């Protein structure tokens, strides 16, 4: 998918189905989804897909105060 620049490629796929060529990404990210995959297997795939000096940037939300019960826990 083209994303505003010929140098930028976006891959939107289920992680398990994504074709990740070796050393082909400068940045990998996961938004509130990494806990759904086998972390050990996924990290091996990510390391293999990142170029030398590349970055892995997962992020997620934390709801509420971890020291207090809330409706999400």
Summarize the structure.
The protein has 73 residues and is α+β, with helices and mostly antiparallel strands. The protein has one helix at residues 39-49, and strands at 25-31, 50-59.
Protein described:
The chain has a domain at 15-59. The chain has one helix at residues 39-49, and strands at 25-31, 50-59. It is 15% helix and 23% strand. It is built from 1 helix and 2 strands. By secondary structure, it is an alpha+beta fold. The protein is elongated and about 45 Å long. It has a two-stranded parallel ribbon with strand order 1-2.
Strand content: 15-25%
- Stretches where pLDDT is under 50 for at least 5 consecutive residues are none
Computed Rg: 15 Å
Reading the helices and strands in chain order gives: EHE
* Average pLDDT score: 86
What key attributes describe this structure?
alpha+beta; 73 residues; two-stranded parallel ribbon; 23% strand; single chain
List the topology elements.
Elements: E1 25-31, H1 39-49, E2 50-59
């Amino acid at each position: 998918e083209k994303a505003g620049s010929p140098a930028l490629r976006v891959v939107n796929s289920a992680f398990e189905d994504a074709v990740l060529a070796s050393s082909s990404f400068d940045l990998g990210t996961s938004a509130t989804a990494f806990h759904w995959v086998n972390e050990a297997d996924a990290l091996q795939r990510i390391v293999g897909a990142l170029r030398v000096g590349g970055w892995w940037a997962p992020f997620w939300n934390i709801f509420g105060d971890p020291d207090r019960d809330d409706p999400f826990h």
